[in-house]
Every structure is written in C-alpha cells, then in structure tokens.
Amino acid sequence: MDTEIVDRNQEETSIVKPAPHVHKVHHENGIANEMMLHKPNGPMRRQPSKDDKEKLGLMNVRAFSFLVLWYIFSFCTLFLNKYILATLQGEPALLGAMQMVMTTIFGFLQMYLPLGMYTPVDRDGKPANFWRNMILVGTMRFSTVVLGLVALKFVAVSFTETVKSSAPLFTVFISRVLVGELTGLYTFLSLIPIMGGLALCSAYELSFNIQGFIAAMATNLTECLQNVYSKLLISGEKYRYTPAELQFYTSIASVIVQIPACFFMIDLQGAKNSLDMTMLTALIVNGIFFHFQSITAYVLMSYISPVTHSVANTVKRAFLIWLSVIVFGNPVTFLSGLGTLTVTIGVLIYTKAKEHDHIQREHRDQYALSNTDTKIV
Known about the structure:
mainly alpha, 14 helices, 2 strands, about 75% helix
C-alpha cells in the first residue's frame, strides 16, 4: 500500500509541477557553459547586452547627439590647428603638448563633473595592467596628435583627409585581431564607396609631399589602433572605464611620454619667441576644443562598434571639407560634389549591409544552438 501511495503522489506532482526545460548554451570561447531555465509560463527576461546597445547604434538619440557634438568640436579644433600652424607659425609638438595638458586638466574635472555625458562609477581600486593600458593608449594619443599636426604643416587639410579615407579598412583588420570582431562580406564591401567618396571630396586640392604623406599614413594607423583599443577598454566585461577616466589617465600618460620628446622635437627658442598673448590664447582655446572633441568621441564609442565609429569618422572628414568650403570660400568642384554624394550613399548602404550581416549571424547562431540542443537530447 505504501508503494501505491508513493506512486500516486509522484504522478500528481508530475501533473501539477512540470519540470523546467534545461538548455546548455555554449559560449564562443568554448570554455564556460551556462544553464538557462525557461519557465512554462513564458520566456526568461534577458538583460540588454552590449551587442543590443551596438545594434541600436546611431539610432539612439544620445549617440546621435554626441555624434553631432563630436563633429562640431572637431571642426573647431581642426581649423584652429591650421590657424596656429600656418598663420601664427606655431610648433606642432608644442601644440600637441598643450592639447594633452588641457585634456588632462579638463579630464580630471569631468571625473567629478560628468555634465550628463556618462554615469559616474564608484571604484574600489584599479584593475590589473591599469597603467600599462593607460601608457599604451596615451602614447598612441600623443603620436596621433603630433603626427597629424606634422602632416597638417606639410600638406593641405584635404590631402591628409584623403590619405585617412582608408581608415575603415584599417579598422576592420585591427578589430579582427584585437577584439575578434567579425565584419560581414556585405558590410566590408559597403566600405568601398565611403572611402572612395572621401577621396573624391578632397581630390581637387591634392598636394603631395613625402614627409606629409608618411605622417598622414602613420596618423591613420595609430588613430585606428587607439580607437579599437579604447573601445576594448570602455566596453570591458570586468572593468569598464568611463569616458572621463580614459580621457584623464591616458592624457597623464601622454604628458609623461611627451616630456622627453619635447626636448628633441620642439625648437624651444623659436617657441619662446612666438609665445605672445595671441598664441597663448589660441593654444588654450584649441586645447579646450580638443578636450571636448576627444571625450565626445569616447562617449560615442560606448554606443557603436569600432568599424561604425571609423565610418562616422570618415563622414566627419567629408563634413569638415564642406565646412571649409562654406567658411573659407574654397572652390567647389564636380569631384567634391560627386564624392559627397558617394559618401552619403555609401553610409546608407553600410547601414543596410550591417543590418543584413547581423541578421545572418543571428540565424547562424540559432542554427548552431538548435543543433547543439538536438545532440544533448
């Protein structure tokens, strides 16, 4: 009789409370396995992931707002750079050093005054390899600034931008190596009209100089490395740097790196002779604009992927060329108009191509997951 009672109880339990379905989800690294429980009354609620945030990308209102701010501050910085170097005959290394000093000061202030750019985080300590990461990014920041200013001194703005039009291609390969980000075939092909369009935009003012060309190519490479590595730090799983932290600590590291470099790169006597009130004011204002250009770029980076950031940077360059046409009255040619149209079409194609590749990747992941579940059962 006891056995019959036990059997009856087990049957009632199995009817009233069915067992949940258990699925094993295999992570991409093939090391850890996670158990996910699906309740019979509905699917488990999932927290928004970094991939979801990047999928929304520039459709996010805050992301688009910081994109616009980034463009505005970049315009102000670029043409103040040209004014200081070409009109005031300033030293590129001194200008770069002043920019890093100003980003250090304002980066420190923004760690305590976020100004709505990010959410402050209470820290218990610093992660492993903290200063190594900061020195790496700081060195790349300093190199990008100085090399870009050297290029600007030897060649026209448009020539530098033409050389930098290959940045999305550099970013695709660097992202694959450092972050493991796979770029779909259609997304990769959509970069071609964007890069070609920027080259056409600036083709009317090409001026070749070997020193300027080498500096522009080196700037391109270091900037792509800096952006991808910064994205790795700002979107980390265990320790996520805030934009102000990344701005402040990398600026300190950059200042430390550039102190010995200044003795070799700066004509101290010439810099002293040119440092009047006009030059000092221009350097300070330029440094403020450069700080806000950098921190808005870091904030934007937390919303989009490195490749999308590089595409946005390419569009920014075309935008700056057209602003130079409006502000300085540079001549407009057929090639510049065709280039702008090509960049615009390329960006629209890139958006659709990225969406298409993302859907295909999700289908492949679901198919792989269903095959895994079948093998387990």
